[in-house]
Amino acid sequence: MELLSFGDNGWGDELFFATLMTIAVSITAMAIGFLFALIFTPLKLSKNKTLNFIGNCYTTIIRGVPELLVIYLLFFGGTGAAMYVASIFGYDGYIEINSFITGALAIGIISGAYSTEVFRGAILSIDKGQFEASKVLGIKKSIQFYKIILPQMLRLSIPNLSNVWQITLKDTSLISVTGLVEIMRQSYIAAGSTRDPLFFYSVAAVIYLMLTFLSMKLINKLEVKYSKGY
Amino acid sequence: MISIFPNLISGAAITLQLLVTSMFFGLIIGFFFAILRINKNSIINKFAYGYSYFFRGTPLLVQLYLIYYGLANIELLRNSFFWVIIKEPYWCAIIAFSLNTGAYTSEILRSAFQTIKKGYIEAAKSLGVTKKITFYRIQLPIAIKQSLPAYGNEIILMLKGTSLASVITIMDLMGEARKVNVLTFKPFEAFITAGIIYLFITFIIHNIIKYFEKKYGFQT
After folding, report:
1. Cα separation, A40 vs A142, whole angstroms
2. Looking at the 3D structure of chain B, how many domains does it have?
3. Residues of B with Cβ-Cβ distance to A205 under 8 angstroms
4. What is the percent of chain B with per-residue pLDDT over 70, rounded to a whole number?
5. Structural domain span for residue B41
6. Residue A36 CA: distances (Å) to CA of A42, A115, A139, B59, B155
7. Is the pLDDT assigned to residue A151 strictly greater than 70?
8. Which of A112, A127, B160, B180 is the most exposed place for a label (fewest CB within 10 A)?
9. What is the per-residue pLDDT for A154?
10. Quick one: closest CA in A to B70, which residue?
11. What does the alpha-carbon distance between residue B13 and residue B19 come to, in Å, rounded to a whole number?
12. Chain-chain contact of A191 with B177 (C-beta, under 8 angstroms)
């Protein structure tokens, strides 16, 4: 227990901040994922073959390739690309891209692919009659989307989004390979310097379990709140 | 581009080896825990639930580190017969992956068992079919058929999970790609080629499962 105390002798405060970092990365990644989903869901639902193909490519490739690969590609490839762009402008030094940004972006791209599938499923499960009814009533397409489809889509996708959130939360542990100090990285450092890996990895596991447990409770509450009246 | 290909292919062979071995053990573990989950005894039930909750609620990386670094820390294990297994990163990876996929498989099978219509079991009972035969000839085949699509997803998730083996020094497809990146400083070539190989394997698994679904699954 001494190992977990706050202050200079223990790893309590370090692990606490690492937990905050994990939460911050997860939320950022989830938000980036939503942005990607907002772009790619309409593409996947579109009747235009080219657009449809682009949307399908995104979800198929990202869901068929290991998460670690996306992270490495952005981390190593991103540095190279940034240096190449900089060299055009005459700067030849080494550029290191912030590991928070690359990590959140990589995980965001991955969670975006899952969110896209969730939103697509939700929109498809909305009764076709509603689209037709709003058309007959002469409601504009944009208003139809914002006032009729979007609220229902969000409600229908909450249970599946909670799965996406869990996946995202667990995927953030992979960013530790790029050196971002989140739970996994901090446990690795602590385990290395105290030579007690069993203890620190168990603590990491418990923290992750608590995070998933708490977020499940929160999402369940949201689900109850938004399914009122159904 | 061509020179890195043999390396990646040999890595892909290790990846497939890891996948097949851990899916095999995972299936056994999954079956075992699924049967515990549908048991009516609440202690056995809770134990099985705890197992699947732990392995589904923590990242695979934590489990891998716990087994690879953590177990080696226990003096008792180091002096025992198990040390032969635990000191090898390959077997640590197999243990972690099997336990992880076992947890997911047990959930898939449990939900398949629970969605079997009660009428089937009641019908078997009223026809005087013994419990054992009801389980093996009625419940089990239906559960397997029902869980095929979800199990296909699980295989693909596990394929992606095996890439973590590269973190504990195993030279699987991901490990080879990392090596190529370090040696040649060409991240795009290395990782994109590896990604294409991963996609190819995913594609094959997807089609095999689709074939089985068509042949044995329920038409819905």
Report:
1. 17
2. 1
3. 54, 58, 62-63, 66
4. 97
5. 11-173
6. 11, 8, 27, 24, 26
7. yes
8. A127
9. 85
10. A198
11. 10
12. no
Contacts of B210 (CB under 8 A, 6+ apart): B152
Taking residues B15-38, report their average pLDDT: 94
CA distances from A126 to A156, B62, B104 (A): 9, 39, 30
Nearest to B176 by CA among A34, A130, A191, A66: A66
Q: Which two tokens stand for residue B140?
A: 């089990």
Q: What whole-number distance in Å separates Cα of residue A207 and Cα of residue A79?
A: 32
A201 → closest Cβ in B70, B159, B188: B70
SS3 for chain A is CHHHCCCCCCCHHHHHHHHHHHHHHHHHHHHHHHHHHHHHHHHHHCCCHHHHHHHHHHHHHHHHCCHHHHHHHHHHHHHHHHHHHHHHCCCCCCCCCCHHHHHHHHHHHHHHHHHHHHHHHHHHCCCHHHHHHHHHCCCCHHHHHHHHHHHHHHHHHHHHHHHHHHHHHHHHHHHHHHCCCCHHHHHHHHHHHHCCHHHHHHHHHHHHHHHHHHHHHHHHHHHHHHCCCC
Interchain contact, B59 vs A174, CB within 8 Å: yes
Confidence of residue B220 (pLDDT cuts 50, 70, 90): very low
Return the closest-CA partner of residue B65 out of A186, A30, A88: A186
The CATH number of domain A23-181, selected from 2.40.110.10, 1.10.3720.10, 3.30.70.20, 1.10.1900.20: 1.10.3720.10
* Cβ burial, residue B81 (10 Å; 0-12/13-18/19+): exposed
Please tell me the pTM assigned to this model.
Answer: 0.89
Q: Which residue ranges make up each domain of chain A?
A: 23-181
How is residue B39 annotated by DSSP?
Answer: -
Q: For residue B67, what is the domain's CATH number?
A: 1.10.3720.10
Flag whether the ipTM exceeds 0.85: yes
The verdict on a CB contact (< 8 Å) between B181 and A72 is: yes
Nearest of B32, B22, B2, B4 to residue B165 by alpha carbon: B22
Burial of A193 (0-12, 13-18, 19+ CB in 10 A): exposed
* pLDDT tens-digit readout, B151-164: 999 999 999 999 99
Rounded Cα–Cα distance for residues B201 and A69 (Å)? 15
pLDDT at A1 (0 to 100): 61
Residues A202, B66: C-beta atoms closer than 8 Å: yes
Q: What are the tokens at B72?
A: 């080696």
The pLDDT of A82-97, averaged and rounded, is 79
Q: Report yes or no on B27 lying in a domain.
A: yes
